[in-house]
Amino acid sequence: MKNAKNKRAIIVGIFICVGIAIFITTIFTIGGEKKSFSKKFPVKAIFTDINGLQEGDNIWFSGVKIGTVKKIDLQGNAKVEVTMNVDEKAKPFIKKDARVKISSDGFIGNKLLVIFEGTPNTQPVAENDVLQTVTMPSTEDLFTTLQANSQNLLAITGNFKEISKRINDGDGSVGALINDKTLSVKLNNTLENFRKASLGSQKAINDIQSFTAALNNPNHAVHQLVTDTIMTDLLRSSIVQLREATYTASNFVNELEAASEKLNDATSPAGVLLNDQQTAEALKATILNLRSGSKKLDEDLEALQHNFLLRGYFKKKEKEEKKKD
């Protein structure tokens, strides 16, 4: 009987020890998650609206939990002072000009505080320092803005509806363009002309690029023509000669015009010869007479050569000419 009681007491003691161990482990686990046993320092911030922030809510810094909200106190002028318990390890990273804003874990999640580190060269924050706050729009403000945007969207939709109706009715330039087939054809022709002009511009650009490439090619005639000084001098000389030839040709044309005017003038000798029929007939008769007289003169000279009085003279002259040859 006594042994049974001792055995029961041992079992009860074992269960009690296991329960105490589980309890202690749970306490340390929860404390580790909430960092209840880590060293902390207080930092304050003053808000005009905490949007449902409560004591015990988390504090985040660069996405890492560094503390919790310790206390919330009301002050005058509709101000709320929030005291934060921040881990000592985060102290070097939080500067005196750091700022705090109220955020939430998701769209409708629990509220939390987010701390921005501040300027790198600024001194770290100290205990009970008051950090600057960033005012964020409340949910009510967001819904008010959304409602205003919805009203504006409805007004814009109504305007588009009115514009669409006017276009369908053919009012205005756009409506006429859409409903009038002739305007559509003209627009297509205009676009086609623009396309052709674009193709022409592209061809001109390609030609300019080809000419530029030829200028940069030392083996190309264009490059040699531009860079060769001798060729340039020859070209300049040719241009000067061409200019002089053009000037001479111009003078010749002027003189030819003057001569033509004189030929057309019936009072000038040349004009009389060209324009007076009687004078032309007389000149023609004179030329015929001269031709006939020249023929008779040749016959007379031939007769003189065979005359016995002058035959010796002509033979002597013929011999002298043969000696010269």
Automatic annotation (TrEMBL):
It holds the Pfam family MlaD. Residues 42-113 form the Mce/MlaD domain. Keywords: Membrane, Transmembrane, Transmembrane helix. PANTHER family: INTERMEMBRANE PHOSPHOLIPID TRANSPORT SYSTEM BINDING PROTEIN MLAD, INTERMEMBRANE PHOSPHOLIPID TRANSPORT SYSTEM BINDING PROTEIN MLAD-RELATED. It comes from Panacibacter microcysteis. This is MCE family protein. InterPro entries: Mce/MlaD (IPR003399), MlaD_Phospholipid_Transporter (IPR052336). The keyword Iron-sulfur does not apply. The lineage of its organism: Bacteria, Pseudomonadati, Bacteroidota, Chitinophagia, Chitinophagales. The chain crosses the membrane at residues 9-31.
